[in-house]
Amino acid sequence: MAQQTTQTPPAAAPTGAAKTEGDKDPPIQLSSKPQNDRIFWALPNFLTVENASQVPPLTAGQKFKLEARSTFDPIEYPYVAMVTLINQVSDSEPTFGRGFRGYARRYGTAFADNTAGNFGTGAVFPALVHQDPRYYQLGKGGFFHRVVYAGSRIFITRTDSGQRQFNYSEFLGNALAGALAPVYHPAPRTLVNSVSIWWTQIGWDAASYELKEFWPDIKHYIRRR
Question: Of 7, 119, 145, 167, which one has the greatest count of Cβ atoms within 10 A?
């Protein structure tokens, strides 16, 4: 028994050392959440990093791949349908008319706005200006502190090197969506309409950041209840 006890530490030491070396190889698996999470178990949440301060940067190809995965996720189609229904009831852009035809036209423009905004803010400009499109959850501190933090991510983001920077991708990406809108939105095609679409997209992004920040807390509460 004594001899077996003295042999145990040498056997355990190499195992621990091997694990430490292995930990250095795939840091993204250790410091970032697996990219398969869904808010309310439905809405794609693939661009959120939970409880991690540093993760390896994304390549330009990975940015486009993750954004395509989110934008064309099956749940996005009924989500856009719900937003379109709200627009239909409020009779936004009256030139679309009522009935099924009006709804179909509103759905097409809503989906185009969503796609252009998502790719602009999550892939095109992050690749061009080397910014990280992921949302880094704070996950600690008081409620209002976290609310302010989440809202500020509209203006502040990370570069691929991990530095803080003004969120050019957010504003330029949604500006791209606003600039493209006159191509498929009905007349009058004015600057005011483009600016309205621009700020609407930014508003949706701000709301999504708040939801991404508190989703782990909501999920924990629901499971505990």
Answer: 167
Distance (Å, whole) CA 37 – CA 199: 27
**pLDDT for 29:** 36
Name 158's bridge partners. Answer: 132, 164
CA distance 40 to 104: 27
- Contact yes or no for 52/31 (Cβ under 8 A): yes
pLDDT, position 131:
97
Q: 114 to each of 91, 152, 176, 202, how far by Cα in Å?
A: 19, 21, 11, 11
- Residue carrying structure tokens 């700020």: 199
List b or e across 39-73, with b for residues whose CB sees 16 or more CB atoms inside 10 angstroms: beeebbbbbbbbebeebebbeeeebbebbeebbee
Largest CA distance in the chain: 89
The span from the CA of 13 to the CA of 110, in Å, is 59
Query: In which residue ranges of the chain is pLDDT below 50?
Result: 1-34
pLDDT in tens, 160-179: 998 999 999 999 999 988 88
Residue 78: which of 110, 101, 121, 123 has the closest Cα? 110
Angle of the 168-184 helix axis to the 191-224 helix axis, nearest 10: 120
Half-sphere exposure (Cβ direction) of 86: Cα atoms closer than 13 Å? 6
Structure tokens at 100: 């099924």
**So where are the chain's domains?**
2-224
Judged by DSSP in three states, 169 sits in helix
3-class state of residue 57 by DSSP: coil
